[in-house]
Amino acid sequence: MAKIRIGFKTFGCKLNQYDTDFLKQVFQDAGYSVPNRGPYDLVVVNTCAVTARSAAKCRQAIRQAARSGAKVLVTGCYSQVAQAELKDLPGVVAVTGVLDRESLVEIARKALSTGETIVEVKPHRAGQPFQETPVREPSLTRAFLKIQEGCDDYCTYCIVPYARGPSRSRSVESILEEARSLVEKGYKEIVLTGTHIGLYGKDLEQGKAADRAGGRNWHKAQDKAGEYAHGEKIDLPLVVRKLTEIDGLIRLRISSLEPHDVTPELIHCLRFPQVCNHLHLPIQSGSDKVLKLMGRRYDVAGFLDIVNQVRKVVPDIGLSADVIVGFPGETEEDFESTLDVISRVKFSRLHVFKFSPRPGTPAYGFPGKVSGKEMERRSKAVIALGKELSLDFHRKLIGREVEVLVEDARARDGKLQGVTRNYVRTWFDGPDELKGRLIAVRAYEASSEGLLCQPVK
Ligand code: SF4
Question: Is the model's pTM score more than 0.85?
Answer without folding.
Answer: yes
